[in-house]
Every structure is written in structure tokens, then in C-alpha cells.
Design a protein that fits this description.
By secondary structure, this protein is mostly beta strands. The chain has one domain. Helix content is about 15%, strand content about 45%. The chain has three helices and eight strands. The chain is globular and about 55 Å long. It starts with 6 loop residues before the first strand and ends with a helix. Bound molecules: zinc ion. The site of zinc ion has 7 residues, from loops.
Length: about 160
Amino acid sequence: MVTITKFLTEEDLKMKICDCQCEKNLKVLFKEINESELRIQPNKDIKGAYILRNENIVARCEGCKKIYFIMTTFEGGLKEQYISVDSVELFEGSMKELRKILNEMYDEYEKELINIATDDYSIKILDKFEDEEKIITRYAYLNREDTDLYEDLIN
Ligand SMILES: [Zn+2]
């Protein structure tokens, strides 16, 4: 299932990412998602995860504008959900450099199955596999409206 997450909060990630005092939301600028979903019968006894999702995220603290590269793993069962933040890396380049990196990463996915573009964002469905037991989806999200990221193009 393709979900669009425009912002992440401390609550979503179960941890504080930014070291500033004014951390608000993290705005998602780019995301690559690998998701496996097990098809389950509602009345069967389920053990373990039925959704497993790995995400590579590029996000900006809306408080101090620092950019972070974040990797997360999400496991969701019927009763419980776990998220772990596997790595956090501060990006120290300029917005122009970041835009170049993001566009290059996004453009590298050449054989997408579906390409959805709105004024605000683009999504590429990169892989989709489905059988009786599971659905595997891989997709990428790119923000297209961020005024800091596109500042030098707007002015
Ligand atoms: Zn911050």
C-alpha cells in the first residue's frame, strides 16, 4: 500500500531526531520505501509482523532547518507496532547540493511501473509483487513544493 507521509513527528519515530530545542515536525523531502505485507485471515492467530517496512528518509527539522538522512524499520502486527530508527545522519551541504542529490536519487529509478506527479510531490512505484501470501511494494516519494529546497529556482 502506498502511503504519503509529508511530516514526521517525535511520536511517529518514538525518538527525537534533531538536537535543537525547537524541534517541531520533520518535513519529508524524499523517501524510499520497501514494504512487505502479509495477507492474513482476521480470525487466525497471528504471530510476528504482518507489515514490515524499511524506509530511507531525507527530512528537515521545521524548527532549525537542519537536514537529516534517516533509516527506519517498522514492524506492525495486529496488536503491537514497533519502529526503530536505524541511523541518523546530519547533512551539512547547501540546499542546492541537496536538491541535486535528491533529484539524482529519484532519477536513478528508471524502470518504474507507475509515475504519479502532482504539483506537490512525485511518486514512483518501483516494484510490486503479489501472491496469495504477501504483497511487496517498493516506491519512492519526492517533495516538489518545498520553498527552501527550491528557493534559488523560485527567485
Ligand atoms: Zn531542529
